Amino acid sequence: MPDKLSFSKTFQALERTISISQKRHAVVASNISNLDTPGYRPKDIDFKAALNRVLESGQELDLARTNPGHIDFKRSAAAGIEVIEEKGEWNGYNWLNIDREMTKLTQNNLIYRTGVEVLLRKMAILREVISQGGR
Amino acid sequence: MDFLIPLETSASGLYAQRKRMDIIASNLANLETTRTDKGGPYRRKMVVMRSKSMAGSFRNILGRQIEGVQIEQIVEDKSPFKKVFNPSHPDADKDGYLLKPNVELIVETTNMMMAKRAFEANIAAIKTARQMIMKALEIGR
Amino acid sequence: MSDLRIGNLRQTPIHLNENQKQASTTEFGKVIKGAIDRVDRMDKAADKSIMDLLQGKADIHETMIALQKADISMRLLLAIRNKAVEAYKEIIHMQF
User: Fold this and answer.
1) How far apart are CA C80 and CA C30, in angstroms?
2) Would the CB atoms of B136 and C54 count as touching at under 8 Å?
3) How far apart are CA A49 and CA A82, in angstroms?
4) How many other β-carbons are positioned within 10 Å of the β-carbon of residue A14?
5) SS3 of chain B: helix, strand, coil, percent, to 5
6) A65 CB contacts (<8 Å, ≥6 apart)?
7) Per-residue model confidence (pLDDT) at position B124
8) Is residue C2 domain-resident?
């Protein structure tokens, strides 16, 4: 049956994708709402980097907690997503860039939907096994 | 997420058409301008567009072929200024001839309509690409 | 009349059992094993396809289809198993 490592890795990757796209939506929406703000520096999230950070760290999911007060930082799917500011001179992020931001919004939304749908399909397989296993 | 490359490609088209619109607006606004900082009448501006490759590992061979667009430079139209006989104008030369911008209203309006159409076409392309992906996500629902 | 003797009769069922055993490992056993292997393959392929999708190497419909293949082969395996269990129960309850 599913290899234990790849099983959890896939779920990890999908959860991470969904988390990243949620955060990115907020960042891009903030860019759009600040199109008239003078001196505003647009922000974005490097999707690939944020995703790889989780994938390359390997199966470090079970971090031992020595103090019950500590938070399971590494476990959180939303941890370690960096918001980066665009470099360079910006005298107001003007409306010329609205196309770019709107497109980012659409792309990000599609990534979110993809993550959710793929996760649902994967879970459907599991649910089938669980519901039929008792017979 | 390379299946999203078509959206970026269309987005580059949107940006290019709007910049083009900016230039057209500048040309139209300066239809009658006889004085500029450089001296002399306003010279018509044009955009030069260049295709740019949308890099990505999107099926390697296909990926190199998919190209978006970028505005390479904004150049000035070298065609001669219009010479109009108007001795009462303060900028007329000693013979009474006035140099006017080499901007043709008809040309600019046509370009403006084309820019609008191209813009709308790019929007439609984005919509369609998005719909296709959404449909693919329905597989197995 | 000689083949009605107990000795001869006892031999036949054992003979049949061996045939049956061979038949089970060649016929139905093959089917079950094939189904299990297929599910394993499809599952791994689906996982790989998901990772490829997230890294940009696969297209969306490829991954959705791979997931469907995994889903269907799992359902098929479960159906085969259910039928086998049903058949077994029927046989067990047979009255001679």
Assistant:
1) 12
2) no
3) 9
4) 24
5) 45, 20, 35
6) A72
7) 95
8) no
Instruction: Give residue ranges of B with CB < 8 Å to any A CB.
Output: 1, 4, 7-8, 10-11, 14-15, 18-19, 22, 126, 130, 133-134, 137, 140-141
Q: Give chain B's length.
A: 141
Overall average pLDDT of the B36-48 stretch: 90
In this complex, the chains that touch A, judged by 3 or more CB pairs closer than 8 A, are: B, C
- For B64-67, the CB contacts below 8 A with 24+ separation are B66/B5, B66/B6, B66/B9, B67/B9
Q: Write out pLDDT tens, residues C13-72.
A: 555 555 555 555 678 888 888 889 999 999 999 999 999 998 888 889 999 999 999 999
**In residues, how long is chain A?**
135
CB contact under 8 A, A107 and B10: no
Ordered DSSP codes for B71-100: EEEEEE--SPPEEEE-TTSTT--TTSEEEE
Beta bridge partners of A45: A83
Domain that holds residue C79: 20-93
Contact flag B14-A107 (C-beta cutoff 8 Å): no
Q: Which residue of C has its CA nearest to B57?
A: C57
| pTM to 2 decimal places | 0.76
Has residue C6 been placed in a domain? no
Nearest-CB residue to A107 (from B7, B14, B19): B7
- Tokens 């003979």: give the residue: C15
User: Domain tally for chain C?
Assistant: 1
Q: Look at residue A73 in the predicted model and tell me its pLDDT.
A: 45
- Give a yes or no: residue C39 inside a domain: yes
A121 and chain C in contact, CB less than 8 A: yes
Look-up: residue for tokens 């093959």? C30
pLDDT per position as a tens digit, B90-129: 888 888 898 999 999 999 999 999 999 999 999 999 999 9
Other CB atoms within a 10 A radius of the CB of residue B1 amount to 21
> Does C4 fall in a domain?
no
